[in-house]
Amino acid sequence: MAELIGLPAPPPAGETALRAGTFDGTAVFITGGGTGLGKAVALEFARLGAAIVVASRKPEHLAAGVEAIGATGARVEAVECDIREPESIAAAFDRAESVFGLPGVLVNNAAANFPVPAEDMSPNAWRTVVDITLNGTFFCSREFGRRHLAAGTPASIVNIGASYAWTGGPGFAHSAAAKAGVKNLTESLAVEWGPYGIQVNSLVPGLFPHEDMTADITENLSRTSDKDVCQPALRVGQRQELGWAATFLASPYGRFISGHTLVVDGANWQRRSLVNPPVVAIRDQMGRPPFGTER
Predict the structure, then answer these.
(1) Residue tagged active-site, from 164, 172, 244, 248
(2) How far apart are CA 218 and CA 166, in angstroms?
(3) Is the alpha carbon torsion for 162, 165, 166, 171 positive or negative?
(4) 184-221 per-position pLDDT tens digit
């Protein structure tokens, strides 16, 4: 029997797949770029010469992003921005443009998500997740696209998606529906704006453990004795791998790639078993009592 070895480990953080200076003279606007995977993506753009604009509603996230990105020697600017509000987005782009010029890359990373059975989901919970994840992605893309259309300049958008845009996400009906919209939006805008030099792609991360993971993901990992054996790659992702994928999609070497969704998860989302495991209802997986019995 062949030995199970998994996919090889990547080069260490700090290595770059693209040439040094690939993004010299380019500003990259990243929503939610101060923490987690957004920060990891921002760091890889910064290492390749980009100036970084970190957009977030939370001052502490802005400060964390500025500190981490500034440590690379890259130029970085923090802008407060509520991506649910087009006026806030316009003001954030005005600020970015006044400091670095019109950003050439937009990374729509900010999103909202938390697990909840659909029958327990409040209207406000649904609206909040869809408003941030889908509407925010569109509003940011529209503002960015309008400015480049007016200037007649090429540009690149990288949306952050999720694999349950294809499969559905039990326990995450709000987020899965919103991410399905993001996938479709990626494809629609790529066709509409391609003639004007604007490429639009989506990047889907698998499991990339990091210090800013939500409580539900952390709790799920804590219940797994060895998370690596649950992945076809026999390992989880390292954050720089997502950053490398994002920088390639937005680079001069990826210009003919548009309308594409690139999944970076070691084939985990495509995993199937010969024999299906027993079905466990979402309420049971979450440890919730039968609907209607809560006190």
Answers:
(1) 164
(2) 24
(3) positive
(4) 999 999 999 999 999 999 999 998 886 765 565 566 56
The number of distinct structural domains making up the chain is 1
> Catalytic site residue 164?
yes
The alpha carbon torsion through 17, 19, 23, 24 (nearest 10 deg) reads: 150
In a domain, 103, yes or no: yes
Confirm whether 278 is domain-assigned: no
Q: What is the pLDDT of residue 225?
A: 45
Helix (H, G, I), strand (E, B) or coil at 52: strand
Of 65, 67, 70, 74, the C-alpha closest to 45 is 74
Q: What is the CATH number of the domain that holds 116?
A: 3.40.50.720
- Which residue positions in the chain have pLDDT lower than 50? 225
User: Residue 247: inside a domain, yes or no?
Assistant: yes
Judge whether 118 lies within some domain.
yes
